[in-house]
Amino acid sequence: MQTHYRTCNICEALCGIEIQHEGQNILSIKGDPKDPLSRGHICPKAVALQDFYVDEDRLRAPLKKTADGFIEISWEEAFEITTNKILALQEKYGKDAVAVFLGNPNAHNMGNLLFMRPFYKALRTKSRFSASSVDQMPHHVAAVHMLGHSLLNPVPDLDHTNYLLVMGGNPLVSNGSMMASPDIAKRLRAIRERGGKIVVIDPRRTETARKADEHLFIKPESDAIFLLSMIHVLVQENKVRLNHLEDALTGLEEIITLVKKYPPEKAEQITGIKAEKIRSIALEMAAADKAVLYSRMGLSTQTFGGLCIWLTNVFNILNGNFDRVGGMMFPRPAIDPITFSPKKGKPKYESIPLSRVRKLPKYLGEIPAASLAEEIETEGEGQIKALLCIAGNPVLSVPNGKRVEKAFEKLEFIACADIYLTETSKHADIIFPATSGLEISQYDITFLNLAIRNIAKYSPALFPKKGNVKHDWEILAELTARLRGEENPGHTPEMYVEMALGMGHYAKEGLSLEKLKAHPHGIDLGPLTPCLKDRLQTDDDTIRLAPTVFLEDLKRLDESINISNSQPDFPYQMIGRRLLRQHNTWTHNSHRLSKGKNECTLMINPKDANKIGITSGNTVLVKSRIGEIKVEAEVTDEIMAGVVSLPQGFGAGKKSKMKIATAQNSVSINDLTDDLRVDTLTGNAALNGVRVQVLKL
Ligand code: SF4
């Protein structure tokens, strides 16, 4: 029997796991108590890693679509067909005719991150899409305009704060999002044990809310008004504290002026939260010696996502808790993406390019994913004619997924790299079968940059590749070489990791790949410490409190207040929710994660259920502007009246190598979400707040 230590790379939490195995037979998967970040914690998804390794229904050889269905082909044929098609279509229609869509697993795979940039360079397309714009793009937009770099994202210092306000997030289920905070239950409990307080504001009484000191319902999409009134209270009550950032800020006067018109009494009418409660939370946070406001997906995936994340930063700064122990902090990662793409002196963010069809802003060089269908459908220069999809499933993960699927009919070529035949890859001409979690080596470049403690950890692959599969990065490297007409130089992710560690913050202290290999539990580099002034990337070395793009977007917010919220045809607002045993759209083949009671239900408040005449277990028809679904109702006062909730990531059927079974008890929320609803400031999809009708069947 052997023991292997690694980091689970399914989600952002970075849990250390301990795997006991005999050869390729796994005996157990447990939390690694010596992992300095997760301290022994895991969730049920980590145990399912073995399911994905052994799953007979995974793709194990390259596939080509024929008139009679998919057939297995050689890697050489798969690469040759794909390269020739890309080059021919780019020759005929231009470089941008070939689009790339990256799914969320790319962020959890060091090989993909390291080999994507040369692949893009070889492809030379501006038609780039990813899951970022159906998730966290507003965080990047706030970071680039306020701090000068889209990857300079703050994380709450959970281990030292004494007051945690959570808006639109459910860290007890996610173990952190835009923050790697495994073992979150203990960490939240510790806040209360040291006399601190946790408050959750959300249209649903989430798992986190149930463990908090206080939970307040808030009307969907009114969060920006709530935040403006919180800042109003700080200013009005003379509670603004800037601490060590006082000499590094611009825009304070603009903020003081603009928040005057958002008193808590005005916010009460819009948010549904009493004015005195808004005042008391703001003042409690001002009085706490260490306090932090953490906003997440409920705020970033709504019509005012950019404003919400900007105002979250502004509140934390004005409350004296930015870049300060116990507040919002910045990790100092061993591999620092800012080292490789410094922006100082080059304020590219002052002129943001726009998408071809809808003229939406392109941040991180990406067209908003909500525009994917229209960029394929709309004729003219730059129209997309081919799609390369890497570890993504936009048919289920992008708003109005059915329109995306229909648009695929117009494409002349699709190639996908995936571990499964999916609702997207089933449309592909070529599918490259990729490796899964236990077959890859990993240094988490993305999420160690968002961890609540400075950590470095490298995990070697546990098992050899199973079947005739390749790592995603090998696929990217080979396509890159062929597109360039060159020999594949045979670089590995480890070569780049070694080089990046050598250029990193801890190189002088001897941190190297060799050292990490000798420390399989990871190396603890200590708690987060103030470092923003060293890492700021604005051209004048200041934090910009009031960038013009946000000030101008306030007009849109003000106009929305004056629009009547009553829509008789669609009286309910729908929000998403995350579940512990599911992740995005790809974990449904694991029997461990799919057994048990049906979790794909429409949560609805008892008052609303009474009006419609339904009870839990009834099947209801849910309609939005773009589509309709039938789903089981779950009547619960966990959700506020006027709001309904569906989980994300469902609608996926059980996969086999050549076909996908019809999804049972499972519908895609994105058959209701509307691709025309976006945060026009950031281009991010507005998945929350979608207007729906619920009917008894
Ligand atoms: S919380 Fe995330 S990283 Fe941790 S075990 Fe679960 S899936 Fe893996």
Topology:
Blueprint: E1 2-7, E2 16-22, E3 25-31, H1 44-47, H2 49-54, E4 63-66, E5 69-72, H3 75-93, E6 98-102, H4 110-123, E7 128-130, H5 137-147, E8 155-156, E9 163-167, H6 171-174, H7 184-193, E10 197-201, H8 207-210, E11 214-216, H9 223-236, E12 249-250, H10 252-258, H11 264-271, H12 275-287, E13 292-295, H13 297-300, H14 305-318, E14 328-329, H15 337-340, H16 372-377, E15 386-390, H17 394-397, H18 401-407, E16 413-418, E17 430-433, E18 442-443, E19 453-456, E20 458-459, H19 472-484, H20 493-502, H21 513-517, E21 523-527, H22 532-535, E22 543-544, H23 548-562, E23 572-577, H24 591-594, E24 601-604, H25 606-612, E25 619-623, E26 628-635, E27 643-647, E28 690-696
Parallel strand pairs: 6-7, 6-15, 9-10, 9-13, 10-11, 12-22, 15-16, 16-17, 23-27, 24-26
Antiparallel strand pairs: 1-2, 2-3, 4-5, 4-17, 8-14, 18-20, 19-21, 23-28, 24-27, 25-26, 25-28
Helix pairs in contact: 3-19, 4-19, 5-14, 9-11, 9-12, 9-14, 11-12
The structure holds iron/sulfur cluster.
The site of iron/sulfur cluster has 12 residues, from α1.
